[in-house]
Specification:
heterotrimer, A alpha/beta (about 290), B alpha/beta (about 280), C mainly alpha (about 270), A: about 290 residues, alpha/beta, Rossmann fold, 2 domains, four-stranded antiparallel beta sheet, 11 helices, B: about 280 residues, six-stranded mixed beta sheet, globular
Chain lengths: ~290, ~280, ~270
């Protein structure tokens, strides 16, 4: 689905501020996968995602998305952006239309779709992100922070991209808002048959959703593996300045103390189940 | 301990733009802040916690009730600048708090406003910058700094007023994990080394865990209050208020619900590991 | 990245000229501009040129930066020169078809071009050696006496300084918004003017909203830091005239004396 071969990106090449953001990266992401992308600020993750939908062009190397090679003249960048939807950080700051419905329709109308289809898509994605129909005719600026963000996400979803990239979709939201967005993203992934790349600083969030985790460090791929396998390398993650979920810390600590537990536990539910077994307690359903 | 801020039955409402009807935000809050304590005010977005914060230095004044800062009523306009000097306030977005193009000039902004003589401003600026460990950056332009560094400068800008109380309104919401750590370390150092009274408004429970006392605000009233180890074990109540608990606390809560009989007041992984190890080795014997 | 561009055209350095009090520099540049108009012959301009070149050398600003300042007014200079050349009446020295050039025309044209060039070079040297902050600061101090007649010197300076502070932030923001809208398929590059203007709406609306939000937050933050206008305000870094400034003043006076001597000795060219 997405394939990077020896891709590099250098900011302001030749200038006094030259900076290598991506350093000879090769990786592959498959159709329908849910990828969690983590790395601290400056690790190159923003550069990477902007490249995947053609906002930045690689300095060297090739990127193939859905069979199209980026940078080749025959590849229409605008077309590519409809296939790879990018929700940037704090996306609510890009809203501009008079009504929520019009704002969501901006992407599809840039695609040149017929009116009826646009209306259909708007209704569908609004429902998908949990915006009630009466909100559609309101001004996006009258909504709450969490609602605005969902409008912005809907605006990208309405283009029905094959790949959806979200850059820190939960930044600045409170726990309830965060859980709601994450829940919707999970839903979308399952129901809309998309490949999803979720960029986040929060290990806890990524752990809940991702099939595989891509860890970036200093412009290089540090790890790209199944979620559990990545969390098995807690030490290395801490070394490169990333947090591991608290629950993984607890389980790792117990194992160090000689408790017989599996490696790579990263959700409270799993930890609870394993410990119940160990202590012969009766498992209760988790609300 | 001495009370530095006293809030009595604080109510605040504003007229709605559409209907003109009064919209209540704070509906009767009574609380105190003690000198030298680290108080965390938790609540989801829209709970009224930021409105509460803005009452602490007279940016907003009560519709009903009173707010007293070291005995001074915030409704008294003659005391306005004295109150704002006592209560330093830091906001979410560091970019929108800085006025000058050079770090030390920005830190000097408040003392300049207060009419402090230049020699003393120099002293205050140096003091404030060293309190947040940013002396090395005094000549830098703010837009070249990282988020955490910018926020530390914003804190220094407030410290230059030599306040008694530092109120931080979601100071880490826009920062990355490294920046958040920087700010939390700065806050703790200010409290421990400089005896600063700190009021931290947040919705991150991992920050609130560090406080001496926690107040949970919900729909304009105080819903919970106490030390972190009495508030956070109430996992279900917190969830209902739209808040999190530390994962370690949640695990212990779940296990106890199944009858594990662990101490409930566990807030961090270290204590959790200790309690579970003890329990599990006992089992094996 | 947009945020890395330098603001204004300040060329950082530590030369004597860089370190002069901004007020001295502003005043001297004003006098310098007046002087260019008082010179009556080419010897005077030679003196002025020598002084200017001397200043550029002392400032260590590469001459090409100074000359870059001339670029935007080049067309203006050429047109002014041509107008003076062809439209001044007097003793004809050359004529072809309907065009005729007079002796007076040549001199007027040369003088106007020289004046404009020196004016630009002088002000460029000021902005190249003085940071925008120092400039605003200097202007505030110089305007201070005018407060009594209602000139809001402090407010103007504060506005300037905040504007300077927010330029890089808003540039970065524009870049982000443009990217976000491009990601939704916006096309800023094709179509006629009307279409392109329309394509700017999705950028301008969020940008304005963000600017207002920032202004609002900044105002609150400033209030929290006890801001109440220029009243009773002290300054962290008081500007002080020093020996350097005296030296600069005396050098400039010497130039003025020389120019007047030249005027007297060699008389008016025209």
């Amino acid at each position: 689905m997405i394939k990077l071969e020896d891709v590099s990106y250098v900011y302001m090449q030749g200038g006094p501020f030259e900076k290598t953001a991506l350093d000879h990266i090769s990786l592959e992401i498959h159709k329908g996968e849910f990828i969690g992308l983590i790395g601290h600020t400056g690790s190159g993750k923003s550069t990477l995602i902007q490249m995947l939908n053609g906002l930045l062009k690689p300095t060297s190397g090739t990127i193939t998305v859905n069979g199209k090679v980026l940078g080749e003249k025959s590849t229409n960048l605008q077309q590519l952006r409809f296939e790879v939807g990018l929700v940037m950080q704090y996306p609510e700051y890009q809203l501009f239309e008079e009504t929520v419905a019009k704002d969501i329709a901006y992407g599809p109308s840039n695609m040149g779709l017929p009116k009826e289809e646009i209306a259909e898509r708007v209704a569908y994605v609004a429902n998908m992100v949990g915006l009630s129909p009466e909100l559609l005719e309101k001004s996006p600026f009258d909504l709450s922070g969490g609602q605005k963000r969902r409008v912005a996400i809907a605006g990208v979803l309405a283009m029905e991209p094959k790949v959806l990239i979200l850059d820190e979709p939960t930044a600045g939201l409170d726990p309830a808002g965060r859980d709601e967005i994450l829940c919707k993203i999970k839903d979308m992934h399952e129901r809309m048959d998309m490949t999803v790349i979720l960029v986040s600083h929060s290990m806890e969030d990524v752990a809940k959703l991702a099939d595989r985790i891509l860890v970036m460090n200093h412009g290089k791929v540090e790890m790209l593996d199944k979620t559990a396998a990545v969390f098995r390398q807690g030490k290395r993650l801490t070394e490169i300045g990333l947090n591991i979920p608290q629950i993984t810390q607890v389980m790792d600590g117990l194992r160090e103390n000689g408790v017989n537990l599996g490696e790579g536990i990263y959700t409270v539910e799993d930890a609870y189940r394993q410990l119940c077994d160990l202590m012969n307690l009766k498992e209760q359903p988790i609300c | 301990m001495e009370t530095v801020i006293k809030i009595e039955n604080l109510r605040f409402s504003y007229p709605s733009e559409e209907t003109g009807e009064e919209v209540p935000v704070l509906r009767g809050i009574t609380m105190e802040v003690k000198r030298g304590e680290f108080l965390a005010v938790l609540g989801h977005n829209g709970s009224g916690k930021s409105t509460l914060a803005k009452h602490l230095n007279a940016i907003l004044t009560p519709t009903e009730g009173r707010v007293l800062v070291e005995g001074m009523d915030t409704a008294d306009e003659n005391l306005l600048y004295e109150i704002r000097q006592k209560v330093g306030m830091v906001f979410q977005n560091p970019d929108n708090q800085m006025v000058a193009n050079i770090v030390e000039e920005d830190v000097a902004f408040a003392p300049e406003n207060l009419g402090v003589p230049p020699a003393e401003i120099r002293q205050r600026v140096d003091e404030a910058l060293s309190a947040v460990n940013m002396v090395a950056f005094r000549d830098h332009a703010p837009h070249m700094l990282s988020g955490g560094q910018k926020q530390r400068i914003a804190i220094a800008g407030v410290l230059a007023m030599r306040p008694d109380i530092l109120v931080l309104d979601e100071p880490t919401a826009m920062l990355d994990p490294a920046g958040r750590k920087e700010i939390l370390a700065t806050i703790r150092e200010l409290k421990e080394k400089h005896g600063m009274t700190v009021v931290l408004i947040t919705h991150y429970m991992d920050e609130a865990v560090l406080a001496d006392r926690v107040i949970v605000v919900d729909r304009g009233v105080i819903a919970m209050e106490g030390t972190p180890d009495t508030v956070f074990p109430k996992v279900e109540e917190l969830k209902r208020l739209g808040l999190d608990t530390p994962q370690a606390t949640e695990l212990v809560y779940l296990l106890n619900r199944s009858g594990a009989g662990l101490p409930a007041d566990i807030l961090n992984p270290r204590d959790c590991i200790r309690a579970l190890t003890e329990r599990l080795t006992k089992e094996n014997k | 990245m947009l945020k890395d561009i330098t603001l204004g055209q300040y060329f950082p350095g530590s030369s004597v000229i860089h370190r002069l009090d901004p007020r001295t520099k502003i005043l001297l540049v004003l006098c310098y501009i007046v002087l260019t108009f008082l010179i009556e012959n080419f010897i005077g301009y030679l003196l002025l040129a020598a002084f200017t070149v001397g200043c550029i050398l002392v400032s260590k600003v590469p001459p090409k930066f100074v000359l870059k300042g001339l670029k935007p007014i080049l067309v203006f200079v050429v047109i002014t020169g041509l107008f003076n050349l062809f439209l001044t009446r007097g003793d004809v020295v050359f004529s072809w078809w309907i065009f005729s050039i007079t002796r007076q025309g040549i001199y007027f044209a040369a003088f106007m071009v020289l004046r404009l060039v020196f004016l630009m070079v002088g002000t460029s040297l000021l902005t190249l050696t003085t940071s925008p902050i120092a400039l605003t600061d200097g202007m505030e101090r110089l305007l201070r006496p005018l407060r009594k007649v209602g000139v809001p010197a402090h407010e103007l300076a504060m506005m300037m300084s905040i504007a300077l502070r927010f330029i890089p932030i808003l540039m970065e923001e524009t870049d982000k918004i443009m990217k976000a809208q491009s990601a939704r398929g916006a096309d800023f590059e094709s179509g006629n003017i009307l279409r392109r203007a329309k394509a700017m709406v999705p950028i301008l609306v969020p940008l304005f909203i963000s600017a207002f939000r920032r202004a609002d937050e900044l105002a609150t933050a400033m209030e929290c830091r006890c801001y109440r206008g220029g009243e009773n305000r002290t300054r962290f870094k008081e500007l002080l005239y020093g020996k350097k400034d005296l030296g600069a003043g005396i050098s400039f006076l010497a130039l003025v004396a020389l120019v007047f001597a030249a005027n007297f000795l060699f008389g008016k060219v025209i």
